[in-house]
UniProtKB/TrEMBL annotation:
Substrate binds at H8, K12, T34, G35, T36, T37, S54, G55, H87. One of its GO terms (cellular component) is cytosol. PROSITE patterns: MGS. One of its GO terms (biological process) is methylglyoxal biosynthetic process. Belongs to the methylglyoxal synthase family. It comes from Salinibacillus kushneri. The lineage of its organism: Bacteria, Bacillati, Bacillota, Bacilli, Bacillales. Its EC number is 4.2.3.3. Catalyzes the formation of methylglyoxal from dihydroxyacetone phosphate. This is Methylglyoxal synthase.
Length: 131
């Protein structure tokens, strides 16, 4: 499965620690991430990640394009709901695309944990049918 990893600045450490905690699951899949998030996952977790631009420089849109082309299976996006984001329209568009194309989306660690356990059990085989 192809998994997108995105995190706002104040949530990057939380996402990196989450990927580290579930490294054995993540390393079985193709990982994609926006710029700095991807860099930190590579450095601190040691798994390969295809890096896009940073979110404000088009990374969210690059991931959105993969979603629209049905080339992304899961999005884990640790958002910071208490800090205004200068690229909020891009974030909203990405979330909307996940809904349109039925892409499982976790925007916090609790939802991400549910997704990762389902992924580990093989619960996402329906994604192959939907495409």
């Amino acid at each position: 499965m192809k998994i997108a990893l995105i995190a706002h600045d104040k949530k990057k450490n939380e996402l990196v620690n989450f990927v580290l905690a579930y490294k054995t699951v993540f390393e079985k899949h193709e990982l994609y991430a926006t710029g700095t998030t991807g860099e930190q996952v590579i450095e601190k977790v040691g798994v390969p990640v295809h890096r896009f631009r940073s979110g404000p420089h088009g990374g969210d849109q690059q991931i959105g394009a993969m979603i629209a082309e049905q080339e992304m299976d899961i999005v884990i996006f640790f958002r910071d709901p208490l800090t205004a984001q200068p690229h909020e329209p891009d974030v909203s568009a990405l979330l909307r695309l996940c809904d349109v194309y039925k892409i499982p989306l976790a925007t916090n660690i609790a939802a991400a944990e549910i997704l990762i356990h389902g992924l580990d059990r093989g619960d996402f085989q329906w994604r192959e049918i939907v495409k």
